[in-house]
Amino acid sequence: MENEKLIVLGTGNAAVTRCYNTCFAIREGEETFLVDAGGGNGILTQLEKSNIPMESIHHIFVTHAHTDHILGMAWMIRFIGTRMNQGTYDGNLYIYCFKELEETIRTITKLTVQKKFYKYFDDRILFVTVKDGDRRTILGRETTFFDIGSTKAKQFGFTVQLNNGKKLTCAGDEPYRDLIHDFVQGSDWLLHEAFCLYSQRDRFKPYEKHHSTVKEACELAEGLKIPNLVLWHTEDKNISERKALYEAEGKAYYHGNLYVPDDLDVIEL
């Protein structure tokens, strides 16, 4: 059984123009678990560039209702619905989210997509609502969902056991809070937001937007003794130097393996 790959489809926050909004896929063999879809039809481009066939996606988790995470879902439903109509999509699509978010996804889709695409709701496009602490089996792996305690809009993260026995946690796009400690502790991989460099906090004002900086995310991972940290959901004003700048600041506070990916990077888990 091969190890999974983390395919980074987007790395930016809601306001970026030089990269796509933060979303990603966990892929093993021919199957794909998609997490968020970004803010538009750019998700189609990112999937194509990553060589991820639409037909391989049978599980999607949507973390919350902000535009840069949810609007791409209308495009996913449209294009998977197209393949269902054409008879080229086997099986069902399962969309995991909390209850209120299900209603938002349904509403946005019905307002923007023709009925011939969303007619599969509750037939072959199935919503799986999750609550804090709920466990589901996705691609044969136990996946636990948790409420991150957002101060802006309700949002969930998740943790999953990988084939190699390691634990991966997606903490959403807001700073870690102690209430999710029991879910995060013992993680081998932590996917965490870092809106900007700590040295540029006065310029980008992350705290006003309920976000953290590279320094704080790295101090967190160091304190929790997490060996692998992935930072994304960032600004994009100097994207060609972003990786080097973020790594340089982060390594002063974190001594594990620090990843600052670009769009379309692939990380072996």
In short:
It is built from nine helices and 14 strands. It is α/β, with parallel strands linked by helices and 269 residues long.
Question: Structural class of the helices, strands and pairings?
Answer: alpha/beta
Whole-angstrom Rg: 18 Å
The biggest sheet amounts to: 7 strands, mixed
Q: Unreliable runs, pLDDT <50, ≥5 residues? A: none
- What's the SSE pattern? EEEHEHHEHHEEEEEHEHHEHEE
Report, as a whole number of angstroms, the end-to-end distance: 13 Å
Helix content: 25-40%
How confident is the prediction overall: mean pLDDT?
Answer: 97
Helix tally equals 9
Shape: globular
Query: β content, as a range?
Result: 25-35%
Give the SSE layout.
Layout: E1 5-10, E2 23-28, E3 31-35, H1 42-49, E4 57-61, H2 67-70, H3 72-86, E5 93-97, H4 99-112, H5 115-118, E6 125-129, E7 135-138, E8 141-147, E9 156-161, E10 167-170, H6 181-184, E11 189-193, H7 201-204, H8 214-223, E12 228-232, H9 239-250, E13 257-259, E14 266-268
Parallel strand pairs: 3-4, 4-5, 5-6, 10-11, 11-12, 12-13
Antiparallel strand pairs: 1-2, 1-14, 2-3, 7-8, 8-9, 9-10
Helix pairs in contact: 3-4
Task: Write up this protein.
With 269 residues, this protein is of the alpha/beta class. Helix content is 28%, strand content 26%. It has 9 helices and 14 strands. It has helices spanning 42-49, 67-70, 72-86, 99-112, 115-118, 181-184, 201-204, 214-223, 239-250; strands at residues 5-10, 23-28, 31-35, 57-61, 93-97, 125-129, 135-138, 141-147, 156-161, 167-170, 189-193, 228-232, 257-259, 266-268. It has a 7-stranded mixed sheet with strand order 6-5-4-3-2-1-14. It has a 7-stranded mixed sheet with strand order 7-8-9-10-11-12-13, with helices on one face.
